[in-house]
Amino acid sequence: MADSHLNYDNPLIGRYASKAMAERWGPLRKFRTWRRLWLALAESQAELGLLADDRKTPRIQPAQLQELREHLDDIHFERADFYEKKLRHDVMAHIHALGEVAPRGREIVHLGATSCFVTDNTDLLLMRESLDDILGKLASLIDSLAKFAATWKSEPSLGFTHFQPAQLTTVGKRATLWCYDLILDLHDLEHRRENLKFRGAKGTTGTQASFLALFHGDHAKVRELDRLVSKKMGFDRTLAVTGQTYTRKLDSQILDALSGLGQSLHKWGNDLRLLAHRQEIDEPFEADQVGSSAMAYKRNPMRAERLCSLSRFLMNLPAMSAQTVATQWFERTLDDSAIRRLYIPQAFLAADACLKLALNVANGLVVNRAVIARNVQEQLPYMATENLMMAAVAKGQDRQEVHEAVRKHSHVVTAGLKDNSMTSAELITRLKGEALFSGVDFAGEMAPIRYVGRSPEQVEEFLAAEVEPIREKYCKLLGQKGEVSI
Fold first, then answer.
1. Looking at the predicted structure, is the pLDDT value of residue 2 above 70?
2. Could you give the angle at the alpha carbon of 100 between the alpha carbons of 45 and 44, nearest 5°?
3. Which of 89, 260, 362, 406 has the most CB atoms at less than 10 Å from its CB?
4. What are the residue boundaries of the Adenylosuccinate lyase C-terminal domain, all occurrences included (predicted)?
5. What is the C-alpha to C-alpha distance for residues 155 and 172, in angstroms, rounded to an integer?
């Protein structure tokens, strides 16, 4: 039996998230980033003229830097594992492992730094990169739903309040509601991404005391070190102050935004499941797909159900990050470490999995026009009564007499519906037989499009005002489809 079948496999990696997101949060990427941070720190210290204790000799030699560059990706995991078991410290373990392949470079690794220099800065780098990935997928999903809304902007459909039939809307107008929630999520995530700053080089408790000692009290060089390291790692801004760690409030804010995305996708998934039950809209269903092991006829909306399930997981992660923020003592406590290894990667993996699935669904929705029209016709006779009343009054009929006729026939037909002796169309047949409604254009008054209000125009206005700017900004990332392999 293969080892892969012996141990627990996180379903987010094995089944749901993309390969790119899984690799981004994997060990290889993390430890490669650690080494690049150590190199950036050493390069910056050298560029700022860091001197040895004699204050004459350069502390960092070009050959040492070159050796580090040559071994950035030369990671011997078995040696790192050996040292971690011995030292009970992952950062020190990887310093030793790097030192074995770059013995001269080892002397300049981690000068003045604390473990959070590599761990926290790496998390910030990976979160920013993951946010970019999420934003691209989300923009593509918005684009797909917007196209769907445009296609079906004038297709009358029953609206529901309290999941009871209400005034008509259109298939496309309802899609704008899903789309708008996602646009709000996009803006929230953009804000978090654009305001994400680097921890930089802050020292053991955030005071930069170790770096100040290395630079013999030169405050300007310490400030410049912070800026240089951050710039080398792709950040143009650093956090104004930190403890040993960057404030865990940043994690909480980002997870809150990802949770918001989960909320929107869960709501959309629920709506699709309800529409599938009414047979009005179907999610993609493959030729060989099996809905039930017992009931061979079933066409379950498994994609929407899975979307709700994964979204629920994503929605609930912020509770843990909030507790981490609240329980950090002074400059840092280590009880943030183990739990952050769980919820930060899994938040992005879950968001990625949700979007991957949502893209697949959005690009394969099937609208059953005949069913939608039939459902509209079942309710339209009741909805049309007010318009029919006004048309009769406009012809000179007494408003109260017309109202009484509608009331009387409506109650009779409603009773007939309940014992299955009538259909709702009987109401129109009965009203047509009333002299009070002589001359009323029943066909014109019964056209469903008369009851959708400004739905088509609202769709067009929404697309122009809200969606087009997003399409323009993310034009190179649109068109993602999302594949579901399991």
1. no
2. 10
3. 362
4. 380-463
5. 7
Burial per residue of 321-350, b for 16 or more beta-carbon CB atoms within 10 angstroms, e otherwise: bbebeeebeeebeeebeeebeebbbbbbbb
d(CA 173, CA 153): 6
Taken as a whole, the chain contains a residue count of: 486
DSSP secondary structure, 381-401, as one string: HHHTHHHHHHHHHHTT--HHH
Residue from 352, 349, 350, 343 nearest 318 by CA: 343
Of 347, 352, 349, 355, nearest to 317 (Cα)? 347
Q: How confident is the model at residue 293 (pLDDT cuts 50, 70, 90)?
A: very low
What span, in angstroms and rounded, lies between the C-alpha atoms of 103 and 470? 50
pLDDT of residue 288: 52
Q: Which domains does the chain have, with CATH numbers?
A: 3-111 (1.10.275.10), 116-146+179-199+239-367+464-477 (1.20.200.10), 385-445 (no CATH)
Whether 76 is a known active-site residue: answer no
Phi, psi dihedral angles at 169 (to 5 degrees): -125, -160
- Strands 281-282 and 366-367, by their bridges, are antiparallel
pLDDT in tens, 364-404: 999 999 999 999 999 999 889 989 999 999 999 999 999 99
Which entry of 4, 5, 162, 293 is annotated as an active-site residue? 162
Residue 255 amino acid letter:
L
**Two structure tokens written together for 166:** 């209400």
The yes-or-no answer on residue 266 being catalytic is no
Catalytic residue among 219, 292, 421, 438, which? 292
| 291 phi and psi angles, rounded to 5 deg | -85, -30
Structural contact between residues 383 and 299, judged by C-beta atoms closer than 8 angstroms: no
DSSP one-letter string for 107-131: GGTTTT--HHHHHHHHHHHHHHHHH
| Alpha carbon distances (Å) from 361 to 14, 96, 148, 176, 272 | 20, 48, 12, 16, 10
The answer to whether the CB of 127 falls within 8 A of the CB of 348 is yes
Q: What is the mean pLDDT of residues 204-213?
A: 97
* pTM value > 0.70: yes
Residue 166: enclosing H or E segment and its boundaries? strand 164-170
> Judging by beta carbons within 10 Å of its beta carbon (0-12, 13-18, 19+), is residue 352 exposed, middle or buried?
buried
Comparing CA positions, the residue from 438, 450, 446 lying closest to residue 384 is 446
